[in-house]
Specification:
By secondary structure, the protein is an all-alpha fold. It folds into two domains: about 1-90, Hypothetical Protein Yqey, Chain: A, domain1 (Orthogonal Bundle); about 100-140, no CATH class. About 75% of the residues lie in helices and about 0% in strands. The protein is globular, with a radius of gyration of 18 Å. The N and C termini lie far apart (about 40 Å).
Length: about 140
């Protein structure tokens, strides 16, 4: 579903001659297609969890790039990158809070880090920050 939404948004940006949106959506769509090919999903869409992971990674890259431009005093480029980040953020669902992550870990019988990480990756892929999950899981050791 999400894969198709991004594909349609990319086409719409092309039709609207929206250069800035087209630039980031084309980049993201290319990454999604490459991941799909790498996983051997020819002709089928990536699952939403994989799409969310790639969106999150792309957002992180945009933020890092914006930080570099900020250090170089290129404010116009920083503004553009942050706008692109905000555009991609619209495709992300609400992320789990620390309290929600803790509550989910509490429900688990096995609270060892590998088990917790496996549970969250299988059930909440793209819905939580896995770094935060790891940090919270370490508190239960």
């Amino acid at each position: 579903m999400l894969f198709e939404d991004i594909k349609n948004a990319n086409i719409q940006a092309l039709k609207d001659h929206d250069k800035q949106a087209r630039e980031i959506l084309s980049l993201l769509f290319g990454k999604l297609k490459n991941d799909s090919i790498d996983k051997g999903l020819h002709g089928t869409e990536l699952p939403d969890g994989d799409v969310l992971r790639i969106i999150q990674k792309t957002i992180k890259e945009l933020e890092e790039e914006a930080e570099s431009f900020k250090k170089a005093n290129r404010e116009e480029k920083v503004t553009e990158l942050l706008w692109q980040r905000d555009l991609l953020s619209k495709y992300l669902p609400k992320m789990m809070s620390e309290d929600e992550i803790r509550a989910e870990i509490e429900k688990l019988e096995d609270k060892k880090i590998p088990s917790v990480m496996k549970h969250f990756k299988a059930n909440f892929n793209g819905l939580c920050d896995m770094g935060l999950v790891s940090k919270i899981a370490k508190e239960y050791q």
